Amino acid sequence: MSVKRKWYITLMQTDSSKMVNLSISKNIGHFVSAFILLLIIVLGISSFYVWKKNVELAHLNRLEKENQLLREKIAFVSTQMDSVLIRIKVMEEWEDNLRGERRLKAINPDIRALGSGGEPHSDPSFLPFDDNLHRIYNEYLNKLNFIKSKTTLTYETHSDLISSLEKRESLFMSTPSIIPTYGMITTDYGYRIHPIFRYKQFHAGIDIANSIGTPIYATADGKISFAGTSGHNGKLIRINHESGYQTRYAHLSKILVEKDEEVLKGQIIALMGSTGVSTGSHLHYEVYSLIKNRCVNPKGFFNLQEDQIKIAQNTNNFTRM
């Protein structure tokens, strides 16, 4: 006859000597042990699941805060882009006003419109996550493309403007446009009776009378092509200018420059005199057009404004005398 095995469990209170003995069958013991083990596993899995959810929730909260911050930053960037667009508009108006003041060719409004970025683009990066963010992002992206196009066009037109102004300034400085000395104009450009030889001749310049030693000024930037004595002209200076003109200064008492020297508009180049064939102290001043191969009336160049000057010819003939 076999004996059934049992499990015995003894319970005892810590503050009493009494003991309680319990006995359960082996099968029930196995069941209780398995149940307790299963309960521990379930509690462990539940705890892990709760911990994982808490971590995910914290991550979602962080993402939500980052998303909100991103929206705020995008809104700030949009404000800054609007500010840039306002500045570009101001720059365009400044350029248009300057072109108008300097009588330069205006920028065609249609050309400015072409610098507006073309057709809008759509970037689908945020479309799977947030429709609103997708819309806002593409709105600002197209605004950025618009700014890039406008700044590119504005840079090009400004560069063209600067280049035009530099060329005009260079042309102005190399074009005779000031009076070469102080004094009284005693003889104009045109036909006259020669004061010494008494025959009718064409006077190719103007005579400005003053005392000997009065300063003579270069009427434009240029290079001295001749500085010396030349027959009836006495002491003479010729200056070639990059605008296509040559200026001539005759009857000088003293020459202060040398051949091939570069001179600037307004620079003192000589002193007035009465050398050569002359009846008194004066400057004989001529303006010679290298493109027309003849002298022109110097009075037409006095007090010329920058926007009144036009190119006489290219630089290929500047060295002609």
Radius of gyration, in Å, reads: 48 Å
SSE pattern = EEHHHEEEEEEEEEEEE
What is the number of beta strands? 14
CATH first level of the largest domain: Mainly Beta
CATH H-level superfamily title of the largest domain = Glucose Permease (Domain IIA)
Low-pLDDT windows of residues: 311-321
Strand content: 15-25%
Assign an overall shape.
rod-shaped
> First CA to last CA: what distance?
148 Å
Average pLDDT taken over every residue:
82
Number of helices: 3
Structure classification: alpha+beta
Description:
The structure is a single chain. Helices cover 39% and strands 24% of the residues. It is built from three helices and 14 strands. It has helices at residues 26-101, 109-114, 131-173, and strands at residues 6-12, 19-25, 184-187, 190-193, 200-203, 206-209, 215-217, 222-229, 235-240, 245-255, 262-263, 268-272, 282-289, 294-296. The strands form three sheets. Strands 3, 6, 7, 8, 9, 10, 11, 12, 13 and 14 form a ten-stranded antiparallel β-sheet that branches. Strands 1-2 form a two-stranded antiparallel ribbon. Strand 9 (235-240) and strand 10 form a beta hairpin. Helix 1 runs parallel beside helix 3 (131-173). The longest helix has 76 residues, at 26-101. The radius of gyration is 48 Å and the shape is rod-shaped. The model is unreliable at 311-321 (pLDDT under 50).
